[in-house]
TrEMBL record:
It is a multi-pass membrane protein. Keywords: Membrane, Translocase, Transmembrane, Transmembrane helix. InterPro entries: ATPase_P-typ_cyto_dom_N (IPR023299), ATPase_P-typ_P_site (IPR018303), ATPase_P-typ_TM_dom_sf (IPR023298), ATPase_P-typ_transduc_dom_A_sf (IPR008250), ATPase_P-type_domA (IPR059000), HAD-like_sf (IPR036412), HAD_sf (IPR023214), P_typ_ATPase (IPR001757). The keyword Transmembrane helix applies. Residues 27-36 have a biased composition (Pro residues). It holds the Pfam family Hydrolase. Residues 130-224 form the P-type ATPase A domain. This is Metal ABC transporter ATPase. The lineage of its organism: Bacteria, Bacillati, Actinomycetota, Actinomycetes, Kitasatosporales.
Length: 812
């Protein structure tokens, strides 16, 4: 027989009168036994020499790295220095801000460590185990257990995990686009090199590992690509930009405040230092960075409980911004398995003979896809038949083929694939195919090839022999998931390699809006703008090639859409790689899992709404609470400037602002950041936050300074500063509480309760004598406290009006 992967072109017909048999092959050479691979002793020797593929599957940060990243920050350094100063010059109450920072940093480390453990655990669950032949027997092992010289078996969808030399090839085609950028698959023959980072698109075979570990090509890239990271997102980039601006504002303001309090006013040294630090500390929005990290980490943990592996943390943010999701039908809307509903012979062909041909085609493919597996289940392999040549299925061709020796000196070449690809336009069988497709059934055509499998177009002139009707199993959760996307105003586009009418019928059964708007991708325009318009106008696309999937994703992005792509097959890899967010099923090919940012390990499409909801919760809530933090930064900077210009004592000690920050920002922000939020994330994070923070902070600072200067005029005597500070604190608290009340909208019972609890806690501080002493807050008389309340009410009303005007006149 011919070696697998070589093509049998055949010889003359031996005389079977039912069907023209084609050419007769030369005598088959003796079979070559497969290589046995390394022995156990050879593996042990390689391990002893250190020739092991020791690149970790996932290179997440260690606990020490997590701790360093959370502790050694610019603002922790500033706060730390100020904390040490305060420990020496002021009561412990004025050093509370330092303990809060320590607690916050500890929470951040703990949550990120939990997220790391979750991710690493899921990565092990979702790790693909290559098949390695040892002692003559194939078996699955961990990627890290591969040694130099191992013989690794590969098939469609498998990723090349180490560099190697091809030893066996059965129509082996490898896609190296992730390494070279070239989209066309490369045919690999024995003796040729394969590189890690590429993947198999068709056929199968085996290769011997020639480079392992960090010597393998793309190993460093793969290690870096899977690194646990909190960067490269609009949210974190926006926060970094804000912190940069805050630093620029803070440094000169702090210098002016130091000079004002220590030199100009000639105050008591310790008191001057305490009030200077009290002015500097609240300028730092240190909790914003912490809260972002915690929100991301908790998001990873929540999704991990649903068997969702987030390979890159910013993917949570990306999904929150998605407005278009491209779905592959097979494995997403339908389950992987299929059932043969009927076999319909054409042109008088004998059904029993057709079943034997189908059984032989199935038996000759060592790695059948879902369609062929259904054929195998329905048609057992015939006795005495053997495969003498194969043409593996590829998404670009839409068919597979094999040359069969039928055991009676009869040799025929058969093709099995898409009827509308193999049949001529107007063929009689197409009408029957269309009718079946309209019922949501999948149809394959069995046809006899006119020539061999090695020609430029093996399907040319093929003679139709039978239609194989397949019934697809709909995912029970698909309809609810599509309904969720519709409710969330996320457009769903079904992009499939199957017949467009058939896919549209399946989508219609699941209730997809616009499922009747189907389009044959072979008619898609080439121009990106026209392609994007066609995509906007239609919902279901069939007969899409892998390259077209990639082009369609790019066209949607060019129209301003944020695109998520789901898929599980090797034909989805290019589109998954280019989409804003790639989502792979856990049972999908290793190549799709490698390039996707999110892997659904439970293979459940219904998990996707949870991922989208988690992303929206994180991003929407961080945008909300960022306003709280930055209002504080703005009013702190402006208050310091006003104090410097007026040459007065800074009104607050650190303990006052620690109390205010805890009650109006720290505690409420934590609850608000973890609350449900279904709003789709919007772009322009910095503009969106600062357009509220700047006017809110300015009004809060002016109101507080007005109360402070009024109190300075009202109270007299050498010990009047505590009373002045208490009045100013009351105004600032009430204004900040109103900012919190606005941010907490829309109200629910727990949000109202949160705001009320924070107000009640402040009242307790004002009412309990030992707390009054601890926080140095004591309202004196009734006139000035009520004046402080009145100024706060005016400021709160002004913030309400200004923010509504901002919404109306300064849309982002």
């Amino acid at each position: 027989m011919t070696q697998r992967g070589q093509v049998d072109t055949g010889g003359s017909d031996s005389g079977n009168s039912r069907i023209d048999t084609g050419a007769e092959p030369d005598a088959a050479p003796p079979a070559v036994p497969p290589e046995p691979g390394l022995s156990s002793a050879e593996v042990a020797e390689a391990v002893a020499r250190g020739e092991v593929n020791d690149v970790p599957v996932r290179s997440s940060r260690s606990l020490a790295e997590i701790a360093r990243a959370n502790i050694f920050t610019r603002f922790n350094a500033i706060i730390g220095v100020l904390w040490v100063i305060m420990l020496f010059v002021a009561p412990i109450q004025d050093s509370l801000f330092g303990f809060v920072i320590v607690a916050n940093t500890g929470i951040g480390i703990f949550q990120e460590w939990r997220a790391k453990r979750t991710l690493d655990g899921l990565a092990v669950i979702g790790e693909a185990k290559p098949t390695v032949r040892r002692d003559g027997r194939p078996g699955e092992i961990s990627t890290s257990e591969i040694v130099l010289g191992d013989l690794i078996e590969i098939g469609p969808g498998d990723k090349i995990v180490v560099d190697g030399e091809v030893r066996e090839a059965d129509g082996l085609e490898v896609d190296e686009s992730l390494l070279t950028g070239e989209a066309d698959p490369v045919v690999k023959r024995p003796g040729e090199e394969v590189m890690s980072g590429s993947f198999v698109t068709a056929g199968g075979g085996a290769f011997r590992a020639t480079k392992v570990g960090r010597e393998a090509y793309a190993a460093q890239l793969a290690e870096e690509a899977s690194r646990f990271t909190l960067v490269h997102s609009e949210l974190r980039s926006g926060i970094s930009t804000i912190l940069k601006y805050v630093t620029w504002m803070m440094v000169p303001t702090a210098i002016g405040l130091v000079v004002s309090q220590l030199v100009v006013r000639d105050n008591d040294f310790k008191n001057a230092v305490a009030r200077t630090v009290g002015g500097i500390v609240p300028m730092v929005p240190e909790g914003l960075v912490l809260l972002t990290s915690v929100a991301f980490a908790i998001g990873v943990i929540r999704l991990g409980r649903k068997q969702c592996l987030v390979q890159e943390l910013p993917a949570i943010e990306g999904l929150a911004r998605v407005d278009t999701v491209c779905l592959d039908k097979t494995g997403t809307l339908t389950e992987g398995g299929m059932d043969v509903q009927a076999i319909r012979p054409l042109g008088g062909a004998d059904e029993a003979y057709v079943r034997r041909v189908l059984g032989a085609l199935g038996a000759g493919d060592p790695r059948p896809n879902a369609s062929l597996q259904a054929v195998i289940d329905a048609c057992p392999a015939p006795e005495g038949w053997r495969t003498t040549g194969t043409l593996p299925f590829s998404s670009a061709r839409k068919y597979s083929g094999a040359s069969l020796d039928e055991g009676d000196a009869t040799h025929r070449t058969w093709l099995l694939g898409a009827p509308d690809v193999l049949l001529r336009p107007g063929a009689e069988a197409l009408a029957e195919t269309d009718a079946l497709n309209e019922r949501g059934l999948r149809v394959l055509l069995l046809s006899r090839a006119a020539g061999g499998l090695d020609g430029p177009d093996p399907g040319a002139g093929a003679e139709p022999t039978a239609l194989v009707v397949l019934e697809q199993r709909l995912r029970p959760d698909a309809a609810d998931t599509l309904r969720y996307f519709e409710d969330q105003h996320v457009a769903a586009k079904v992009i499939s390699g199957d017949n467009a009418v058939s896919v549209g019928a399946v989508a219609g059964k699941l209730g997809l809006p616009g499922a009747e708007r189907t389009y044959d991708a072979r008619k898609l325009p080439k121009e990106p703008e026209a392609l994007a318009d066609t995509l906007d106008e239609n919902t279901v696309f069939g007969r899409v090639t892998p390259q077209q999937k990639r082009d369609m994703v790019g066209a949607l992005q060019a129209h301003g859409h944020t695109v998520a792509m789901t898929g599980d097959g090797v034909n989805d890899v290019l589109a998954l790689k280019d989409a804003d967010i790639g989502v792979s099923m856990g049972s999908g090919s290793e190549a799709t899992r490698a390039v996707a940012q999110i892997v659904l390990l439970n293979n459940s499409f219904s998990t996707l709404p949870s991922v989208v909801a988690e992303g929206r919760r994180v991003i929407g809530n961080i945008t909300r609470v960022a306003t709280l933090f930055l209002v504080k930064t703005v009013y702190s900077v402006l208050l310091a400037i006003l104090v410097v210009l007026s040459q007065t004592e800074y009104p607050f000690l650190p303990r006052h602002l620690t109390l205010l920050s805890t009650l109006t920002i720290g505690v409420p922000a934590f609850f608000l950041a973890l609350a449900p939020n279904k709003e789709r994330a919007q772009p322009h994070f910095v503009k969106r936050v600062m357009r509220y923070a700047i006017p809110g902070g300015v009004i809060a600072a002016l109101a507080t300074f007005t109360t402070y200067m009024t109190a300075r005029a009202y109270y007299t005597g050498p010990d009047s500063l505590p009373a002045e500070t208490s009045a100013a604190t009351l105004t600032l608290f009430l204004v900040s509480l109103w900012v919190l009340a606005i941010i907490a909208r829309p109200y629910t019972w727990w949000r109202v309760g949160l705001v009320a609890t924070m107000a009640g806690a402040f009242l307790v501080v004002l009412a309990v004598p030992w707390l009054q002493d601890f926080f140095a807050l004591r309202l004196v008389g009734s006139v000035m406290p009520w004046a402080a309340v009145g100024i706060a009410v005016i400021a709160a009303a002004l913030i309400e009006v200004v923010w509504r005007l901002v919404d109306r006149r300064l849309p982002v």
